[in-house]
Write a structure and sequence with these properties.
- Helix 3 runs parallel beside helix 5 and helix 4 crosses helix 5.
- It is globular and about 50 Å long.
- Strand 1 and strand 2 form a beta hairpin.
- It contains 7 helices and 9 strands.
- It comes from Kribbella alba.
- Keywords: ATP-binding, Nucleotide-binding, Transport.
- InterPro entries: AAA+_ATPase, ABC_transporter-like_ATP-bd, ABC_transporter-like_CS, ABC_transpr_LolD-like, MacB-like_ATP-bd, P-loop_NTPase.
C-alpha cells in the first residue's frame, strides 16, 4: 500500500528560540560580526519572512535557526525537538538559495536523498518523495536530470526534498532570489503549501518586500541586528 502523506501531530509552543545569539566570523582585526546578539522565537505553525538587503545578516540568522551555524555567544535552542543534532535533522529542513541538486541524480533520487540520509528506508523514502513531488507540482519530472530543469522547477524539487523529512521547521534562504517574479510567486505558493502539508513552521529570508508582505509576520535585519518592522524596535 502506498504511504499516505499525513500531516504530523501538532506540537504547540516554540520550535526554536534564540537568546542574545550572535555570530562572528574571523578573529581579531579581521573579525566580522554577521549577527549581533538577538533574541527571537519561532512558534509552531508560524509564517515568518526575514527581510533586509544583501549582507544584512539574514542568511546567517537563518543558519543559526537551522543549527547549521553555532552562535559565537548566546544560545539557540529547539525546545520541542530532540536533544541531539541527529535528532533535530529529522525535524528541520532547509531550502538553500543556490543550486542544491546533485547533477548525477535524477529528480526522484535527489528528492529521496534527504530522507535516506537521515535514516529512512529506501522504499519509504521513495513513497514520500513521489508524494512530495506531486504536492509541489513536478511529479512528471521524476526521471529528468537537474541540468534539464528550469530554475523554478529545480527550486520546487528542492522544496519536495525538504518535505520528505516531514519537517516541523521549514527554512528557505532567498528561495526566489534567482527567479523571475512570476516563477518566484509560484515557489512561494509551493512553500506555503508544503508547510501546510507538513504542519511545519515556515521561515524564509528575502530582500524582496513584495515576498515579505505575503507572510503573517516580518522580521527585519539591518547591519546584523534584528528589528521588528512595525515598531522599529530591536527584538
Amino acid at each position: 500500500m502506498t504511504e499516505q502523506f499525513l500531516t504530523p501531530p501538532h506540537h504547540p509552543g516554540q520550535v526554536v528560540r534564540c537568546v542574545d545569539a550572535a555570530r562572528t566570523f574571523g578573529h581579531g582585526d579581521t573579525a566580522v560580526v554577521a549577527v549581533h546578539g538577538c533574541t527571537c522565537e519561532v512558534s509552531a505553525g508560524a509564517r515568518i519572512a526575514i527581510t533586509g538587503p544583501s549582507g544584512s545578516g539574514k542568511s546567517t540568522l537563518l543558519h543559526l535557526l537551522a543549527g547549521l551555524e553555532a552562535p559565537t555567544s548566546g544560545e539557540v535552542s529547539w525546545p520541542s525537538f530532540g536533544s541531539t543534532a541527529v535528532e533535530r535533522s529529522r525535524d528541520i529542513a532547509v531550502v538553500f538559495q543556490g543550486p542544491s541538486l546533485l547533477p548525477a541524480l535524477d529528480v526522484l533520487e535527489n528528492t529521496m536523498m534527504a530522507a535516506v540520509l537521515t535514516g529512512t528506508d529506501e522504499a519509504t523514502a521513495k513513497e514520500r518523495a513521489l508524494a512530495a513531488l506531486e504536492i509541489v507540482g513536478v511529479a512528471a519530472l521524476v526521471n529528468q536530470l537537474p541540468e534539464t530543469l528550469s530554475g523554478g522547477q529545480a527550486q520546487r524539487v528542492a522544496v519536495a526534498r525538504a518535505l520528505t523529512l516531514r519537517p516541523r521547521l521549514l527554512l528557505a534562504d532567498e528561495p526566489t532570489g534567482q527567479l523571475d517574479a512570476t516563477t518566484g510567486r509560484h515557489v512561494i505558493n509551493v512553500l506555503f503549501k508544503a508547510a501546510d502539508e507538513a504542519g511545519a513552521a515556515l521561515v524564509i529570508t528575502t530582500h524582496d518586500q513584495a515576498v515579505g508582505d505575503r507572510f503573517d509576520e516580518q522580521w527585519e535585519m539591518r547591519d546584523g541586528r534584528l528589528f521588528t518592522p512595525v515598531k522599529g524596535e530591536l527584538l
